[in-house]
Every structure is written in structure tokens, then in C-alpha cells.
Amino acid sequence: MKPPNITPPPLRNDCFALPAGVNWTPVDDALALLRSRLTVVTSVETALIGQAVGRILAEDVFAKRSNPPQPNTAVDGYGFSGAAPEGPQVMPLQDGRAAAGIPFDGAVPHGKALRVLTGAALPTGVDTVILEEDVTVQDGHIAFHGPLKQGANTRKAGEDVAEGDLVLPTGRRLTPADMALLSATGISEVAVRKTLRVAVLSTGDELVEPGNSAGPGQIFDANRPMLLSMIARLGYEPVDMGRVSDDREDLRDRLDKASEQADVILTSGGASAGDEDHVSALLREAGAMQEWRIALKPGRPLALGMWNETPVFGLPGNPVAAKVCTLIFARPALGLMAGEGWSQPLGFDLPANFEKRKKPGRREYLRARVRDGQVEVFASEGSGRISGLSWAEGLVEIQDGACHIRPGDLVRFIPYGSFGL
Ligand code: AMP
Ligand code: MG
């Protein structure tokens, strides 16, 4: 039989601009819209300092006590009053000493020196300290060489933090260093946001649970373990909603459950406009679907919608695209909803150790790492190449307008750590 006379579409040169007739949303516009639409959804609770690391402050914290609370000595040595002039100095020793936590009881007369140990509150009559290594002690006297400025080797009260100062602002994700700062300034408990609950759901008839046997045409669900662990690393509570097949009723049911158990839902797969893309179809049906064709590679499609008043990020199924979309779109959005505020990952401009041509008008993220001060990229840009996600130590961000990157050009490298992973 003769084949039908069908004309194939014209060849498309990959260096041409993005397909015409489509309204491509620039990444920054999509981010600005997300930022303007989302708000904090978590409530407030009190946490003791011992449990507060990694939590998000729900209000500004002010110092209850100065640090240091009183003037004290920064070194082991001998304390006295006023500056010492140039040349050899000899001073009689005052009986007793001042140590950390054990202040000297009394005043030190002008012209006399007192033994002082690091951290000791300066007694009345002492405002200057000479380091013990610079002193000879003999016959109840000390001898050293001047000059020494008044106040040398001492710490002033409140020179670090004064009582009433703002110590840490609302939205701060508390670090181990913050534990020291809060403790030192007299704070033992803080108001924090409840941890944001993030549901993760995989969709696709082809998916099998890792550990089970996989038949022909089946693949192991790689996105869910990745996304759940990303959520945990980002400091949120992962809620595992399992997998659903490409069945609209099953998916509807699971989204209902997820919206009861979590503050926000991440799905992967089924987000574009194909026959089996039920996530986007359901969100569209629910009426609050953002039809985004984002000028981003890898990434599109990304379906955003509300399900029972719970925001849903319908991520692409390809693991590389799922990860990039989570880092670029979901991460700042989760930060906003969790009370941390919108944040941009810290990137570093470094010379490229690669060459790349791309279409202008879209943002691209490549799996990258830094060696010898230069950014190298994974050999393949294939969106299914999961090994490249592991190989990489971050992403390189190629700006929308760029067309041709040559070796040595500065490119923006964003380590995974900058995203909080
Ligand atoms: P989809 O977005 O559903 O069209 O899926 C795009 C590609 O990603 C297909 O090759 C899927 O098999 C694959 N994919 C979808 N979900 C997963 C998953 N959870 N783990 C690994 N690959 C997936
Ligand atoms: Mg699918």
C-alpha cells in the first residue's frame, strides 16, 4: 500500500529563538508573581534554645542582657588604672586576685596592680591590663616596659551587644552560632514558626517502588526519594504521599489527602499538556491553574495551582527538571510560606571551563562543579541523566540573554549549599 502523502513540519534550527506563538514567561517574571501571591501559612509556637536550631524566628529578638555584661579582662595579666608611659615601669602588687566568675572584693588603689585572669570583671580602680608574658614578678612588685594605652587588653561592657539591641530579626533561620548569641544575651526561649509540611507525590503508570521488581517499561521512582530528602534538608517536614498511577480519580483522591496533611504539595510528572498529564488537567479543572510556559531549561512544564486552598507545584517528571524547578521555584516559595521570607541563593561569578551555545530569551541551568577555580559542566544536558545530578556540586545559571558562552567567560555558579542542600 502507498503511504499517505503527509508533509512533515519544517526542520527547526536549534539556534533560532523560542517557538513563536507562545507566550514564554521569563523566569524572573514567574518568580516575581510567586513572590507577590504567596504569604506565610505556618502558625507560631515557643521553642527552648536547646530545640531551636534550624527553626525560623516568628518575631524580632532583643537582647535581655549586654554582652559582655560588665567590663572584663581579655587576657591573663595584671590590672591597674590608667595608661603606662614609655619606658620601664615598676608597681607594687595589691593582695588578692580577680578571676572569671570570682570578682575581686574591693578597690585597687591608683598606682597598684592586681593579678587578673581572662574573663574576670574589672574591679573598681582597674581599667587597663598588662599581659602576664610581658611582666616580671618579684618581691611583691611587677615590672614591665611601657607604653601601654589606657584600656589595653580589656573588653568594654556591651561592646559586642548592648541590652535592648536587636539580636536577630523575624524570619531568621536559627544557626548554631545564633544559639551562642541568644544564650549570651539572656534569651532562653524564642517564638518560632511551626515547621512547614510539604507533601511529595509521584505520578506515572511506569513507576515502581525502589526495592520491588520492575517489569519491562517500568522504572524506579527516583523523584520521590530525592524530593523528600530535599525537603528535609531545606528544613521542612516531608510528608510522603507515595505514588499514583495515571488515573484521574486516584490522583484526585490523593491530592485531597495531601491537602489535609500538608501546607503545600509537590507532585512530579504529568504536568504538561499530554493525554496522560493528569496533574495539569486536574488543576485546570479546579480552576486555579497557572498555565506557565516558563522560558527555562530544563524545566518546563511547571503546573501551579491550588487544591483545596493548598498550593500545588506540579513539577516535571524528568528528575533533572524536577530538581531544578524545585530549587529555582519551589524553594523560595516554600521559604515565604514557612516564614523565612523570599531568598535568593548566593552565586559566585567564575570563569567557565566549557563552551556552550544557547537560544537567547531563556534561562538555562546546567549541572556544574568547580575545579581549579573554573566552572565545569556535566557532559550531557539530557534531562533524564540522573548521574549528572550526583556528579554536580551545584548549578551554573546562564542568563536569559546569553547566546554563546566561551571558555574564560564569567558565569554564575550556585553551589547546592547556597540553596540549603
Ligand atoms: P512526565 O512529566 O510525566 O511526562 O514524565 C517525563 C519523564 O520523566 C518520563 O520519562 C517519565 O518516565 C519520567 N519520570 C516521571 N516521574 C518520574 C519519577 N518519579 N522518577 C523517575 N522518572 C520519572
Ligand atoms: Mg508521566
Strand content: 25-35%
The total domain count is 3
Helix/strand class: alpha+beta
CATH architecture of the largest domain: 3-Layer(aba) Sandwich
Cα-atom Rg, whole angstroms? 31 Å
Low-confidence stretches: 12-18
Rough outline: elongated
- List ligands, each type once: adenosine monophosphate, magnesium ion
Number of helices: 8
CATH superfamily of the largest domain: MoaB/Mog-like domain
Which CATH class of the largest domain is shown? Alpha Beta
Distance between the termini: 59 Å
The profile of the biggest β sheet is: 6 strands, mixed
Mean pLDDT, rounded to whole units?
A: 93
Q: How are the strands ordered across the major sheet?
A: 7-4-6-5-9-8
Measured as a percent range, the helix fraction is 10-25%
Tell me briefly what this model is:
With 421 residues, this protein is an alpha+beta fold. Helix content is 20%, strand content 31%. It contains eight helices and 28 strands.
Features:
3 domains, Molybdopterin biosynthesis moeA protein, domain 3, 6-stranded mixed β-sheet, Beta-clip, Molybdenum Cofactor Biosythetic Enzyme, Chain A, binds adenosine monophosphate, about 20% helix, about 425 residues, binds magnesium ion, alpha+beta
